[in-house]
Amino acid sequence: MTFPDEPxxxxxxxxxxxxxxxxxxxxxxxYETALDGPAxxxxxxxxxxxxxxxxxxxxxxxxxxxxxxVLTPGTAERLASTGxxxxxVLQDAEVAFRGQVLAVVVADSSEVARHAAALVRVGYAQxxxxxxxxxxxxxxxxxxxxNPGLPTDTARGDVDAAMAAAEVTVEETYTTAMCHNxxxxxxxxxxxxxPAGDGFLTLWDSTQGVHATRAVLASxxxxxxxxxxxxxxxxxxxxxxxxxxxxxxxxxxxxxRALPGRPVRLALTRRQMFSLxxxxxxxxxxxxxxxxxxxxxxxxxxxxxxxxxRIKEFAEQTGxxxxxxxxxxxxxxxxxxxxxxxPVPSWMRAPGECxxxxxxxxxxxxxxxxxxxxxxxxRIRNEPDVDPESGKPFSSRDLVxxxxxxxxxxxxxxRDPRPGVRRRGDWLVGTGVAAxxxxxxxxPRSTATxxxxxxxxxxxxxxxxxxxxxxxxxxxxxxxxxxxxxxxxEVRIGDTDYPLASVAGGSSGMATWGSAVVEAARALxxxxxxxxxxxAEASGSVGPADDRYAMHAFGAQFAEAxxxxxxxxxxxxxxxxxxxxxxxxxxxxxxxxFVGGMTMxxxxxxxxxxxxxxxxxxxxxxxxxxxxxxxxxxxxxxxxYWLPEHDPHVNAMGSKGIGEIGIVGxxxxxxxxxxxxxxxxxxxxxxxxxxxxxxxxxxxxx
Length: 702
Description:
Layout: H1 19-24, E1 39-45, E2 51-57, H2 59-63, E3 67-71, E4 94-95, E5 101-107, H3 110-119, E6 121-126, E7 145-146, E8 150-151, E9 154-156, H4 159-165, E10 168-176, E11 188-193, E12 201-205, H5 210-221, E13 228-231, H6 247-258, E14 264-267, H7 270-276, E15 283-291, E16 297-309, E17 330-340, H8 353-356, H9 358-371, H10 375-381, H11 399-410, E18 422-424, E19 427-439, E20 447-453, E21 456-460, H12 470-482, E22 489-492, H13 509-528, E23 537-541, E24 552-564, E25 570-580, H14 587-606, E26 612-613, E27 618-619, H15 632-635, E28 637-642, H16 666-678, H17 689-697
């Protein structure tokens, strides 16, 4: 990315522009929008998993001082569109999952609203529910596509014949748990309808995409999109769960419609988020690998079973990364779904790649063990020349560089390949490795405007910053495209009043919005020269991607695991990742993303599991007291590095998304390290002490 008079803002380690206001507490989040006389909403949720509401007694709630409205399916506004049954709330009496919203109470304070909601009495006609995910279910089906519109199944060659003829094989089943997004800021909305009655709706929402939220809400309420404004300058995390509107947005808008001119606030409780904001589906992965004695793969197969909701399908693309990761003439991937009486699963950081790399990367470690080949070397030996799925050349691919650099930094050469032979006091010590990948792409239909304003430059687009650094990195990109110091560039984002922008998801944000900003800046310079007059502006849009290439980021994850010889307790004092992710826009925010992803991957490996009670259809550990996530005390040392990578094909900046690749591969690296520490192969996440203790007790010499 070379521009006239380039001041090289891209690549500088700049502090976050939004950092000070967040630390000082002056950044305004959706729930905190300063408005006069707000009302507060609290939801009444189903206590059964399937059936029909036969009675809603709201008298006690309505009699409570401070309650201003109670909305039920009998009193709530009819939505113009009810095709999305997840969002068609308060439209009928059917109950599709435990925790579904049945009614809402609106009051002068959040405390009164919550109290009143507890007073609503609900009667049900309950029917038998089914929440059991198993690979042997007779009703499993193949979805038409898997997220985000990819083929459900793929096959090449003859996997079964290759398995039968192979010198060495691995055929195992791996499982990943139900995991729940838990961003620091809950899903929150403030809604206000214009009191003039002209049908104008303003939403201050914690969202990863203001324009996507506007489009959905306009459709639900039968409005022209010009009658809806969505504002979201600051977002306290999302991890994918805020990538599309959830019921909180619809409920706030419905309640505010009933109180024209009065704003309504809704912040979901932590417990409500476990049933109303999506989650990562549990997966069952049957992985099959075949290889010659030299380690060359002759077959790869991944057959996935996962769950979806009866009311809305979501098919996680779990088997997709196996399609392009390693070379093999025979390959197959399949996806099958069980439609259950559960909440709707959805995006969670690195959907597909994150769970989908666990099974294959542990299987690769098992294959290395059986072959007597170093796990790093085995991966290098199976490096493909082109994308095995499409046959296209890679725009850039340096997995081998990541593996070698990571091994050198981690001290891999000192590793004894035998499991269970290193010990520090009562702790058995092991190390493990796994590879990471994530597609590099940009979304269509995003635009930006760059304008000269008062001697400065202003870049506007409806992008979101959910903690990833967008406020800062977009300014760096704009500065280089304009050929001016970054201090002269102001960024305005998070509002549908700004040009159309894609959702912050799929690690595509900066590639998409940055490309639009570059085009706008170039257009401004081409039109007005190096010093445009005050008020001059130009717009730019994202162009089509170069479909001649397969575009992916890659990485290698290394983990050190300690397993207590007597209790089976697992600790991971050290993680190290090396990534090849194109040009790094800002090293400070990039390192934050890599380290955050690796930490979240460790959380998936050791702690996170939504425990679904089959008797009630209820996630019983639905708060942060019982649903443990990795905290500072759990992490130890997390190191993130990257290789210099020039890729002129991905976008004008040469950058690749980095928000998600850090989580990919981490859980597999931890599992492989646990095996190396104690000789116990854990194929079911999370890795808890009960899964290793029995095997430890059976060790020779005990």
